[in-house]
Amino acid sequence: MSAEAVLDVDRADLAHPWPAPARRSRLAVSGRAIWVVLKREGIRFAADRLRVVTGLLQPILFLFVLGSGLGTLVKFGPHLNLRTFLYPGAAAMSVLFTALFSAGSVVWDREFGFLREMLVAPVSRTSLVVGKCLGGALVASTQGVLMIAIAGLANVPYDGVLMLTIFGELLLLALAVVSFGMLVAARIQQFQSFMAVTQMLVMPLFFLSGAMYPLSNLPAWMRVLTRIDPLTYAVDPIRRAVFEHLQVPPALRARLVPGISWDGWHVPLGLEIGVVAVMAALFMAIAALEFRKVD
Amino acid sequence: MPAAVSVRGLVKRYGEVEAVRGVEFDVAQGETFGFLGPNGAGKSTTIGMLCTLVRPSAGSATVAGYDVVRDRDDVRRSIGLVFQDPTLDSYLTAEQNLRFHAELYGVPRSAVARRLDQVLELVGLSDRRHDEVRGFSGGMKRRLEIARGLLHAPVVLFLDEPTVGLDPQTRRSIWAYIKSLQQAERTTIFMTTHYMDEAEYCDRIAIIDQGRIVALDTPEALKASIGEDRVEIRTDDDLAAIAALEERFGLKASTHEGLVSFSVANGAEFVPRLFAGLQVPIRSVAVSRPSLDDVFLSYTGRTIREAESAAPNEWMRRMAQRGMRR
Description:
The structure holds two protein chains of two kinds.
Chain A: H1 3-7, H2 11-15, H3 26-46, H4 49-71, H5 82-111, H6 114-119, H7 125-149, H8 160-185, H9 191-207, H10 220-228, H11 232-244, H12 250-256, E1 261-262, E2 265-266, H13 269-293
Antiparallel strand pairs in A: 1-2
Helix pairs in contact in A: 3-7, 4-5, 5-7, 5-8, 5-9, 5-11, 7-8, 7-13, 8-11, 8-13, 11-13
Chain B: E1 5-14, E2 17-27, E3 32-36, H1 43-50, E4 58-63, E5 66-67, H2 72-78, E6 79-82, H3 94-104, H4 109-122, H5 138-151, E7 156-160, H6 168-185, E8 188-193, H7 196-199, E9 204-209, E10 212-217, H8 219-225, E11 229-235, H9 238-249, E12 254-256, E13 259-264, H10 267-277, E14 282-288, H11 292-300, H12 304-310, H13 312-325
Parallel strand pairs in B: 3-8, 3-9, 6-7, 7-8
Antiparallel strand pairs in B: 1-2, 1-4, 4-5, 9-10, 11-13, 11-14, 12-13
């Protein structure tokens, strides 16, 4: 039997195939766990090309069909078309749905048993959750890279700084969304339920985020809701960045990209990004706590 | 040598129900120890407590010298686990599954490649290492899980119903692999089963029923403890044979369907004496040893089949779950 081959190895060596490691720091153990969970997300994503294509379809429809169709109604003059205005929203949407799907994979893992392999390992639940969130965010932001690649089709200029800025902002958004998805997934047993619950939560968030319309001149109730929606704080910085690199008359720009104000106070860019970062950290922390309770 | 597993007064209550009611035993290093009992007897709950997945309500247990409640991560590092239901990522290759495990269990990087070769060789999957697991048969998946359980060189390998749901031939081959790896690695194996015939592979068996250990010994001793071998003979003159057995050997025999049958302490040694002393022509002799089924029956007063049908709810729930997953 094949055991023979193993028996050739020094027997003393077999009882302990490697010297007992000195007690490693928790940080090193967690680091390795985070890395391997993240890596698995990458391997799974790379093997699944269909997901890349389907993930792109929705934002492209949104950008070119909706953008071109409604573009016949909405005229901004010679300097700007609707597609350019919608581009930041479409990019956010693409990352949003991919990120949710990535988070949902943990429910698949549960259904197919692999989650158990992770949960029984001698590593902290936090490191598993952090690995899953980072992995999902990276996967989702590759979707962002594709959106950046097609930016020219929406008349968004290919500018190095602009592209890096958009990527960074999309990555942060992805991290927040994956973490949110993870905290929802902690208590859900079936993938269908996960999709149902997240769609129910995410569609209103998306429609209220200003992805499809400017934040100026809104009715009062909508004005309040858009300010509460965390997604608003992810879309606005991207739109600001895009308009920085366009030649648009100041009056038009003020109407289309008014920024976010809290009761008349203009929220600076750094704070907008800070809101998203805090959300990401908060969701991830809650997700880690939730997964501690999972058997 | 300290015990690989040591259990004292272990209890698990779920609300009003006591699933495990104070079990005690030790498992020596290198031993293959079996937990035998019907579904719902408390086997999986006990294994769950030893693997730190279920928190005991009372009592204590150590695995590889570590307390299952206090030193949870140390216990987890010292054990390998193969569950009833598969826990592989079927979209990863065999090797990717193993590498994932090696990272989570902190196998030193320099040792990973060689260890991977070893365990794959051990379960006969070296040539399939780069194939995605979803193409594997049930038996191959189970072997890969066993390889993975061994990867980090655990002190104890826990196998919870390792062959459930597999066909008899595959079950036998899985057992051949388990026995060979045990020789190669000298790992302590702790397993549960409700197949009586599989318990024969164990060095010692604990019979568990309704949350209690009702017997604990080697398979041989357990069989011997309930007694005697069954001997069946075919003779030319049954009535004369029965009379002669009574007269010369003091044995009570009876006849069913043309066979004279009786019980005797050591059947194999008795047969030559029977031929020498009976003086009635014998056409054929059959000696059968008591089976573990008989052992279970004698300790619990019911067969394992009866015991399982007595707890149908739990059993059906689990079958339903399993059906949904596959």
